[in-house]
Amino acid sequence: MTTQTLGRRAWLLHSMRRLLISGAAAGAAASVLAAYPERPITLIVPFAPGGSSDIIARTIAPDLSAKLGQSIIVENYAGAGGVLGMQRAVRANADGYSILLGSGSEVLINKLINPSLPYDGQRDLKPVVFVGTGPMVLVGKKSLPPNNIKELIAYAKDEKNHLNFASAGNGTPMQVAGELFNIKAKTSITHVPYKGASPALVDIMGGQIELGVATLTAAQTFIKSGKIKAYGLTSREKSPLAPDIPAIGQVPGLEAVDLGVWFGLFVPAKTNEAVVQKLESASKEVLANPEVIKKLADQGVIASGKSAADLKNFLSIESEKYRAVIKAADIKPQ
Question: Model confidence at 334, in pLDDT bands (50, 70, 90)?
Fold first, then answer.
C-alpha cells in the first residue's frame, strides 16, 4: 500500500470520526433542547421586592413562562448590594433552571470595587438577552439656587458652597454616575450613600441633602410634583421617557457623562448553548411584545431585546467605563 493511499485512508477515517462526533454533539443538543424545560424555572432577583429589578422580573416572567411552557418563580435573594444574589446565580446548576435578572451593580461594579469577591460576572455568567436600559437623573432640593447644569457647576465650584450628593448606596451605578459628573465638571461634590433610592429622595425633598443621582423610575414622581429639581439626565441624549429633562452629556465638556441603568438575563457560564439559544429566542419575543414594552416604559425602562452577543459586547464597554471612574474617584468597598 502506497504512502499516498495510507494518507488518504487516514484522512477519510479522520473525516468520518469528525462527522460522528459532530453528529453525536448535534444529537445531544437536540435532545437537551427537546426536553428543556421540564420543570419550573427560578428567576433570581438579587434585590428586595419592590425595587426596579424586582418589578422588571415580575413584568417579563408571565410572558416568558407562556413562551417556554413552564412556570417561572421569581426569587428575591437580597443582601450585600446584590452580592448574595450573584453568588446564588453563579453557584446554581448550569442547566437553564436558574436565571439571573442582573444589572450593573452586582454583575460588574461590585467586583471592580472589591476584587476579592469570589465571582466575576463576565467570567461566571453567560448572557442570554439584553432586557433594557433606563436613564438616571441628577436632582436637587427645591431651594437650591442653581436652575440648570451650568449654574450648578459654577455654584459647586464656589468655595462658600459645600455640596453633597446622595445615591442608592455604595457601588451603585448612581454613585458611579455622580462621580463621573464630578470628574468631568471638575467639581468636588461629596458622595453620601443611602440604603436605597427612596430614603435618599425623601431627604432631598426635605432639604437634608442638596443633590442626588437616582433612576428616573424612582425620581419621576418627586420631579413631576415639583418637590425636587431635575438638573439633567446622566446621558448623552435626551430620553423619550422624560422629554422635558435635558441631557447632561449635551453640555459642552460633559459629553462623557453617559451612564444609565441596564438589565439583562444571565445563566451560569457552563449552561448548554442549545438551552441558552432557546431562552434567548423566547426572551426576544417577550421583549418585542407591545404590552411588555409599555409596562417597562411605565417603569422607566426602554426595552431592548438585543441578543446575547450584543449584551456581552455591551458589558465589555460598560465595564471599562465603570473601571475608569472607580479608579479616578478612588471608590472603595464599604
Answer: confident
